[in-house]
Design goal:
This protein is an alpha/beta fold and 288 residues long. Helices cover 43% and strands 14% of the residues. Strands 1, 4, 5, 6, 7, 8, 9 and 10 form an 8-stranded parallel beta sheet that branches. Helix 3 links the parallel strand 2 and strand 3. Helix 4 packs parallel to helix 6 and helix 8 packs across helix 9. Bound molecules: zinc ion.
Length: 288
């Protein structure tokens, strides 16, 4: 009888060990395979388990910063996309007082692999509107922050958009410039040939105009699928930002970086609550 109980115990222990091992394997499989350029620079596999902890990096998504033009005053969408200058300035001061360090989207996949001891945030500006140069750029410089600006290459120099000279000045001053495609089409609806063109040509033009390697793509209107991600990997991009709500963490797929939209009506109270929540979020807790 005693022998039987012993065997039963042994079987139970074996079963729990296998279950634990199985869950580890399962967890490992959920980790995303990173592009070779990123792997080369971080070598995630060799990070000791203790250091391979989640680092939360809020990626804040902005469109317009400034006043809503007179003729758009009744346009609710435009109002929502426009952060008043005074709000924006308060947000930068708050981030600065809270000892946030701004970083680039290019660095996020690398940074999230470590617990660095720093609090990072990304300030991401979509579409290349001219207020990025006139309103955002001077304030970022004032706070010694960097921003990440997504450019639609065909729209450069159009009415309401930045010129190449302005983009170059910002790039030379240390701002991150990333691709937002050639013409802002919905990437998931394109033929393979057009998709390749939108992804590769925008990278090529930006690199030619700025003399820097462009590693990051922002999905126009947030639309992406496996084919779009695959094309990005083949075209040499190391990361892409979506419009999925969430905070970037160490297990994120670098081609699906989440972001949080800063709406025009987000006042200081809401802003600080939002960032606090993002910094506390753990891998398994639901996203907002
Ligand atoms: Zn856009």
């Amino acid at each position: 009888m005693n022998q039987f109980i012993k065997q039963l115990w042994r079987a139970a222990i074996l079963l729990s060990v296998s279950l634990i091992l199985l869950s580890c394997v399962k967890k490992k499989a959920a980790h995303v395979i990173l592009p070779p350029q990123v792997l080369a620079s971080i070598d995630r596999q060799n990070i000791p388990v203790d250091n391979h902890v989640t680092q939360n990096i809020p990626i804040l998504m902005y469109h317009y910063v400034g006043a809503v033009p007179q003729n758009q005053k009744n346009n609710l969408v435009r109002q929502d996309l426009t952060v008043p200058l005074s709000y924006f300035e308060e947000q930068l001061s708050w981030l600065s007082n809270e000892h946030f360090v701004t970083t680039t989207l290019d660095s996020v996949a690398r940074l999230t692999a470590y617990k660095s001891g720093k609090k990072y945030a990304v300030l991401s500006f979509d579409d290349g509107y001219d207020d990025a140069y006139t309103n955002v750029f001077p304030l970022l410089k004032k706070h010694k922050f960097i921003g990440s600006f997504a450019i639609i290459t065909d729209f450069v120099g159009r009415d309401g958009y930045m010129t190449w000279a302005q983009i170059r000045e910002m790039s030379d001053a240390g701002m991150e410039i990333v691709s937002h495609s050639v013409s802002h089409k919905e990437m998931t609806l394109l033929s393979p040939k057009t998709l390749q063109y939108e992804i590769r040509q925008s990278k090529k033009i930006l690199e030619k105009m700025l003399g820097k390697t462009i590693n990051v793509f922002i999905y126009p209107s947030g639309f992406f699928n496996a084919s779009v991600e695959d094309e990005l990997l083949k075209s040499g991009y190391v990361a892409a930002r979506t419009t999925k709500s969430g905070v970037a963490q160490s297990v994120d797929n670098p081609y699906e970086l989440p972001a949080v939209r800063i709406h025009g009506a987000v006042d200081m109270g809401k802003f600080s609550q939002l960032i606090d929540r993002m910094m506390k979020k753990t891998i398994d807790s639901p996203v907002f």
